[in-house]
Design a protein that fits this description.
Elements: H1 2-11, E1 22-26, H2 29-33, H3 36-49, E2 57-61, E3 73-76, E4 80-82, H4 90-99, E5 109-110, E6 117-118, H5 125-128, H6 146-151, H7 156-162, H8 167-177, H9 189-198, E7 204-210, H10 219-226, H11 228-242, E8 249-256, H12 260-275, E9 292-297, H13 306-313, E10 337-341, H14 342-354, H15 356-360, E11 370-377, E12 383-388, H16 393-400, E13 410-415, E14 421-424, H17 434-439, E15 448-453, H18 458-472, H19 478-481, H20 483-495, H21 501-517, H22 521-525, H23 528-536, H24 538-545, E16 559-561, H25 573-577, E17 583-584, E18 592-593, H26 603-607, E19 615-617
Parallel strand pairs: 1-2, 7-8, 7-10, 8-9, 11-15
Antiparallel strand pairs: 1-3, 3-4, 5-6, 11-12, 13-14, 13-15, 16-19, 17-18
Helix pairs in contact: 7-11, 7-14, 8-9, 8-11, 10-11, 10-12, 11-14, 18-20, 20-21
Length: about 625
């Protein structure tokens, strides 16, 4: 451990050491897009003007998690939390909370239930109700500084492994922890490592799947942006356990090119790790040799599948090779390959540092540890959430997420991305673990969690996911390529009020055929959003089919916009905003919508200040839907 302790001494004390005056600024993708750079420039300028530049540290960190409240600033040592800031707020914050010891109350976060100001970050329900393991340092270290990571105990797990633990002991520790893959079906991580080690080869590969393609999912991107060294350390430990004493081991991180910030920070972290002797030859003087390369994918959803991913790294077209292929035996270039996702590797250092028993104490009997979710949709608090396995959907959505937006009711939550399912309100007390979600017709997946309210049409929602999987199909097998297309066509007919009861029955049969016949699990799970919609929201589907109406007033062929003459003031706002000139009327007189011209874009309703443009059911068609 001497070489490691030398690195720690060189790193110095943590920037967030107790009692230090530090201003943390979120530098995650969302806050960057909201103007973080201008905020930091204003902050540094104000501190310099007051002669405080050497006394106060400005720490640009990774994502704090509460993404909708950015840009975020936290003033330490008090931990005062300021959301949604602009450069014009900086002078007042420095004067009040840095020079003085007060708070700027008008800039504080407001409790989502009471509306009262909350001063400290740790007292905000969104943070207080989480249990952070993987994201323990996110928002607290500079992701581009290896010294920051080392000062907080980074690479201690790798050093302890290299200091004398046998590879078999490391695998046994991961097995005892109960860690399961965080990217899909939840295969036991230790068992996968053991299988990979047992398979002979000229070289063993350790591959990190950072190709999260689920709509609304950004957990892996955030880990790579916020704490890339945790992933590197986890991969290095996996490489040591899997085979360095038998064969050479090489690492790859496969990440989509749409994540430029994640790639840039990962590349910086790799360079820093090599410079400090934590990657490359003779790591920490142990004789262990391992390095990692970055491979950027083109963004195809199917490349998240293991055999398609390895084919892409090899320079081939990213297409699955078949259900019987096991990458632990025949993976990258035909060699034994261990493939885990970003979050799985990021759990490994914590397990080694704290012990398998501490990790296994979190979660349920079969689903251990914590899980990160990207909470999105019609919920008060959107962002990144980490909770113990087994927490209920209600605890995540209403406890951490703050519940629904004012005036709306919870309708469903979609888990697992396009391969997952839509669960209704009666399942809000369902625990979030692998077995419970699978039994309900959904899946953990990588951790996307999209909440919808009573303004969402479940037919339209299912159609969105099925269109995505249909367009992203690699086309190799007929059940996926053709089956999802035919399923989408039926959903299109349902949403247009042109389907029959026979179409619904055909849709269900097609779902079964696609599941059974698809070459890979991405095609095999594509029907899940449709099946759960039929299972839990069948009445809403049948309203489209039998009554030719959309209860949520979303499906355009089944609705129309009208102007209430009792409420219309003739203000001309809708007249001016309509992109197709479908609205007529004199000023200060009730207006009228020409239904033959209206494209149902919703612009008129959005600009009306008098709630005078309701959405109503269109007149039922004279002919019934086609039967089969």
């Amino acid at each position: 451990m001497a070489a490691y302790e030398t690195l720690v001494a060189r790193a110095g004390r943590p920037a967030l050491a107790p009692g230090t005056r530090v201003i943390r600024v979120c530098a995650g993708s969302t806050c960057n897009a909201m103007g973080r750079d201008k905020l930091v420039a204003a902050l540094r300028k104000e501190l310099a003007a007051r002669g405080l530049a050497d006394e106060v540290t400005v720490l640009e960190t990774g994502c704090h998690g509460l993404c909708q409240e950015g840009p975020i600033v936290v003033v330490h040592p008090e931990g005062v939390f300021y959301p949604r800031l602009s450069p014009k707020d900086i002078a007042e914050i420095v004067e009040t909370s840095v020079v003085g010891d007060g708070v700027v109350e008008r800039l504080l976060y407001r409790h989502p239930e009471t509306g009262e100001p909350v001063v400290r970050e740790d007292d905000i329900p969104f943070y207080a109700r989480q249990r952070r393991v993987v994201r323990e340092l996110n928002g607290r270290i500079n992701p581009t500084s290896i010294d920051d990571y080392l000062a907080h105990g980074g690479y201690r797990a790798l050093a302890s492994v290299l200091a004398g633990r046998q590879p078999e002991d490391v695998i046994a520790e991961i097995e005892r922890s109960g860690l399961r893959g965080r990217g899909g079906a939840g295969f036991p991580t230790g068992r996968k490592w053991r299988s990979c080690r047992a398979n002979p080869g000229e070289v063993h590969y350790v591959v990190c799947n950072g190709d999260e393609g689920d709509p609304g999912a950004f957990m892996d991107r955030a880990i790579l942006e916020d704490n890339p060294h945790s992933v590197i350390e986890g991969m290095a430990i996996a490489a040591y356990a899997i085979g360095w004493d038998n064969t050479p081991v090489q690492g790859y991180v496969y990440v989509r090119h749409e994540y430029p910030l994640a790639v840039a920070r990962l590349r910086t972290a790799l360079e820093q790790a090599r410079e400090r002797g934590l990657l490359g030859k003779d790591i920490l003087g142990s004789g262990f040799e391992f390095d990692i390369r970055i491979n950027q994918g083109a963004g195809a959803f199917v490349c998240g599948e293991s055999t398609a991913l390895t084919a892409s790294i090899e320079g081939q077209r990213g297409m699955p090779r078949g259900k019987h292929i096991r990458t632990v035996a025949h993976g990258l270039w035909g060699q034994p390959t261990n493939l885990n996702n970003v979050e799985t590797y990021a759990n490994v250092p914590w397990i080694i540092n704290h012990g398998a028993e501490a990790f296994a104490a979190l979660g349920t009997a079969t689903s251990k540890g914590t899980k990160i979710f990207s909470l999105a949709g019609k919920v008060r608090n959107t962002g990144l959430v980490e909770v113990p396995m087994g927490a209920t959907l209600r605890e995540v959505i209403f406890g951490v997420g703050g519940g629904m937006l004012p005036g709306r009711e919870f309708k469903a939550v979609q888990l697992g991305g396009p391969s997952g399912g839509c669960l209704p309100a009666e399942l809000l007390d369902e625990p979030v673990d692998f077995e419970s979600l699978t039994g309900a017709g959904a899946m953990m997946g990588s951790g996307g969690m999209i909440v919808v309210d009573d303004s969402t049409c479940m037919v339209d929602f299912a159609r969105f996911f099925l269109r995505f999987t249909s367009e992203e199909s690699c086309g190799k097998c007929v059940p996926c390529r053709v089956g999802t297309t035919r399923m989408l066509e039926i959903l299109e007919r349902i949403s247009a009020g042109e389907a029959s009861v026979d179409d619904v029955e055909l849709l269900e049969r097609l779902c079964g055929d696609v599941i059974e016949g698809s070459l890979c699990q991405l095609g095999g799970s594509a029907p899940n959003p449709v099946l759960t919609t039929l299972r839990y929201f069948r009445d809403e589907v049948m309203a489209h089919v039998v009554e030719k109406r959309c209860p949520a007033k979303v499906c355009r062929p089944l609705i129309k916009y009208v102007i209430d003459p009792e409420k219309c003031t003739g203000c001309h706002a809708c007249f001016t905003a309509c992109p197709v000139g479908a609205i007529s009327g004199e000023r200060k007189q009730p207006h009228v919508i020409d239904q033959s011209l209206c494209i149902k874009c919703d612009t008129c309703r959005q600009v009306c200040k008098f709630d005078a443009i309701p959405v109503v059911d269109a007149e039922p068609a004279l002919t019934e839907g086609r039967s089969r």
